[in-house]
Amino acid sequence: MFTLVLSARFKLSCCRSLKDKRSVMKKALSHLRQEFSASAAEVGMQNSYQFGEIGVAIVTSDKTSALNLAEAVGNWFYDNADIESVTLEYEIV
Question: Which pTM value belongs to this model?
């Protein structure tokens, strides 16, 4: 059994308030949970409306699946129109 632990830090230039950020983050977290069957949460930068950090954890049966999921989650962040300047860090345990 392997666990993918991923952290994504990014800029939200579309947001002008914490209320705007909450809307974008809620959609992103919901998508990550549904699309990838992942545990996902906002883990940092809660008081900044232009920056965000999301943590993702996924349990898989093999390392190849974990690597494929890391790539898929990363691609989702890079392709999301509301999210810019993504920095990803991941570890497979």
Answer: 0.90
